[in-house]
Amino acid sequence: MSKNVVIKIVLLLALISINTYASGVIVGKPTINKVFNYKGTWYLRYQDVKLEEGTKEKVVVNGLIDRVVQSGRNEERGFPLMESYDLTLCNELHIDIYNEHKKIVSQSNVFKFGDLTKCTDVPSSNSTKPMITNIFNYKNRWYIRYEDTHVAFDNAYEEMVVNGTVDRVIQNGQNEERGFPLSQSYDETACNEGQIKIYDGLNNVVVESEIFKFGDLTKCASSSTPLMDNYENYQSGIISANRLSKYIDNWSENRPQGVTGRLVIIQAGATSNGKVLKNDGENVLTYKIPAGGACDPSYMRHDGVANIPGAMVNGMRIDGMINTFHLNPEKDFIVFAVGVGSTKMRDVIRSLWSLNYWGWSHDRLAFLNGSVDYDFSVSSGLNNYLVDTASTPPATPSTYSMKSLKNDRTNLHIYINEMMKIAALDDKNGYFIADARGTSEYSGAKKSKAASKNCGENHDKQCYSPYQGHIRDAVDFPYTDLLILDDQSEDVNGDGNISKDDASFKFKSPSALEALYAQKGYRKGDKVITYCRTGRKATLIAFTSDMVLNYDVAMYDGSWIQWGEMANREDLNGTTILPAESKWITDNPDYSVNLGYTSPVDTQSVDSYEINNSATSSQQVKLEDQAYLNQ
């Protein structure tokens, strides 16, 4: 046999080998979307890729094969895993795809699950949504700024979508703030909608931002941003009784576009004659909670510097709340309603705000404007929507978690070190600080209460903060200014009198709220910073800023009950609260306007605050909440 013939045979065999081993080779790779535990069994969901016949997929967990399945198609698939895995450990799963010759031809991303704090390198495909912070026009060029989210996929990219059309495409970045000019020009007199979509290497959307509206917001059809004279056209945020009655009448037909879950009404207290809103027990549910809402003023969290009485609930507590009523954070539409009108509706708004803080979609969250008593009275013609019996909560809790939303809104709250930095600014251009407590506390005429009632000579009197006043350059913005408190026209509560208790307690219209903020000194583009005494009243300013006016906002959750404690004063036990050299003293003209001290015998004990004078940061709550969301 000649040398040339041998060479040709060798080349032919090599070609055959290449063609044989190429069987099942694809472009791209499977993408793992989720690994989760349900009732003790682990499940896998992933986007599969199509291979030729004879290929198999091996699911590998922690280096060992869990199960083997036949290769599927270009579709989402799901299977239970065969083994049990420890929730307290970092587990790693990936999929290997083998051709008929037992050669790996494709491999998925590595997906980590369990306790991600134990992982050395957590893939950011589990991360939070990108968040658009601004879209603005500068010298006739539109720009976008946003908090980016890194996803751990090869060739991941981001689309900037405006009004449903791709404006530009860029490579996926890191977990950082980014900014780019947009490629097109947009009409400032129209309502425009921007969104960021992040794709993996197989052109699948893996995460997307909330829609950001810009231009003339009064032209927006969606109910979360237009500035109108009433809330009749609003579908979420703040809704009218007419809107809610339509929802109750035929939820499947009248629910907002994109909502696929149930209508769940959380009614705080019954009406004055013991009624609740109608429900069908299946698609429309009405659960009754205490009239004061679901907040616990005795609950504390430590921010690294000091305890915050009545702080934002942690992840386990918010999950406990939604699981009590089987609220699906990815589907259900939640409406909070107050049975009897009162300024105490602030505590119910705080419950709504808790869901907002933990990432519940604005498009599936609402507050009934007014009270059930007022809105569904006999004279309204809607009293047929009232019944005697509320829905019965399920006997056992569900297993939902706000973690599934991957929506980090922890920036809606700030803590004492950030508040001190803002207060110390001589030029507060870009900030609007709103004190929601009320004029008497703002001016120092009324002492600001502390949490305990063991002060006075006999230790049986109300305790107060060590000093009175307000944060430097804060404006007096009583939360009641947001409400309509003088529209009583009939005996709504049935006590035989027409009085202020029969008012609607409705929020003022969007246009009236905009005018009110401007009157108080808000300037377009300012970031609203709000506080009160315990973080309840300030929630109304935060809520209207965020979900009605679309203003940038953050609430100082510690509020005066924490801020006013941080002084070089003695408490009722004769203990010095903070030493004179402490960096955390707020009783300083750089930070506060002091309008008078409280006598030591009437001053709240420092013990319950557990102050860490050597602390260098107050971000502990935020870091805990971010860690919970990223589990």
Overall description:
It contains twelve helices and 34 strands. With 631 residues, it is an alpha/beta fold. It folds into four domains: 25-122, Immunoglobulin-like (Sandwich), CATH 2.60.40; 125-219, Immunoglobulins (Immunoglobulin-like); 237-405, Oxidized Rhodanese, domain 1 (3-Layer(aba) Sandwich); 410-629, Oxidized Rhodanese, domain 1. The strands form ten sheets. Strands 3, 4, 6, 7 and 8 form a five-stranded antiparallel beta sheet that branches. Strands 11, 12, 14, 15 and 16 form a five-stranded antiparallel beta sheet that branches. Strands 17-24-23-18-20 form a five-stranded parallel beta sheet, with helices on both faces. The longest helix has 19 residues, at 3-21. The protein is globular.
Tell me the count of domains.
4
DSSP summary, beta strand count: 34
Structural class, from helix and strand content? alpha/beta
* Helical stretch tally: 12
Strand content: 25-35%
Q: What is the 3D shape?
A: globular
Sequence-ordered SSE layout with sheet pairings:
Blueprint: H1 3-21, E1 31-38, E2 41-47, E3 56-61, E4 64-70, E5 76-80, E6 90-98, E7 104-107, E8 111-114, E9 131-138, E10 141-147, E11 157-162, E12 165-171, E13 177-181, E14 191-199, E15 205-208, E16 212-215, E17 237-239, H2 241-249, H3 251-254, E18 263-268, E19 276-277, E20 284-289, E21 300-302, E22 307-309, H4 315-324, E23 333-338, H5 345-357, E24 365-371, H6 372-375, E25 386-387, E26 413-414, H7 416-423, E27 431-435, H8 439-442, E28 467-471, E29 475-476, E30 483-484, E31 506-507, H9 510-520, E32 527-531, H10 537-547, E33 553-556, H11 559-563, E34 592-597, H12 620-629
Parallel strand pairs: 17-24, 18-20, 18-23, 23-24, 26-33, 27-29, 27-32, 32-33
Antiparallel strand pairs: 1-2, 2-5, 3-4, 3-6, 6-7, 6-8, 9-10, 10-13, 11-12, 11-14, 14-15, 14-16, 19-25, 21-22, 28-34, 30-31
Helix pairs in contact: 5-10
